[in-house]
Amino acid sequence: MGLLDKLKPQAPVIRPTDLNLGDDGSLRIRWDDGKDSSYAAKWLRARCPCAECVEEWSGKRVVGDAQVKDDVRPRGMHQVGRYAMQIDWSDGHSTGIYSWDYLLKLRSEG
């Protein structure tokens, strides 16, 4: 059995082809698998993956739906490399980096 026989095929990598903010503050993504996602602003902010919102050592979420104001909105977003984006939120929070993989995981939860 050769090396190529031992390698498992990898699932195709799904990446966004278009990102925009809706009038209601939602993040809308069109993926290259042909699917579209829409993430409500408060819902997405409450799932920020940064170390301020999720304890680094325990993985326990400390900022969630109850801590995020209903009127929170993205003020802007910036691409981080080729793997993620960072959102500047109206509540002053901007340290969360939302990887494409994380947003795909959230797509199945939302």
What tags apply to this protein structure?
alpha+beta, 3-stranded antiparallel β-sheet, 3 helices
Describe the structure.
The protein has helices at residues 3-6, 41-45, 100-109, and strands spanning 16-21, 27-31, 36-39, 74-80, 84-89, 97-99. The chain is α+β, with helices and mostly antiparallel strands and 110 residues long. It has a three-stranded antiparallel beta sheet. Strands 4-5-6 form a three-stranded antiparallel beta sheet. A hairpin with a 7-residue loop joins strand 5 (84-89) and strand 6. The mean pLDDT is 91.
How many domains? The number is 1
* Computed structural class: alpha+beta
**Biggest sheet, strands in spatial order?**
1-2-3
Low-pLDDT segments: none
Quickly name the level 1 CATH class.
Answer: Alpha Beta
Overall spatial form: globular
> How many helices in DSSP terms?
3
Quick recap of the structure?
This protein is of the alpha+beta class and 110 residues long. The chain has 3 helices and 6 strands.
List the helices and strands and how they pair.
Layout (H helix, E strand, L loop, with lengths): L2 H4 L9 E6 L5 E5 L4 E4 L1 H5 L28 E7 L3 E6 L7 E3 H10 L1
Antiparallel strand pairs: 1-2, 2-3, 4-5, 5-6
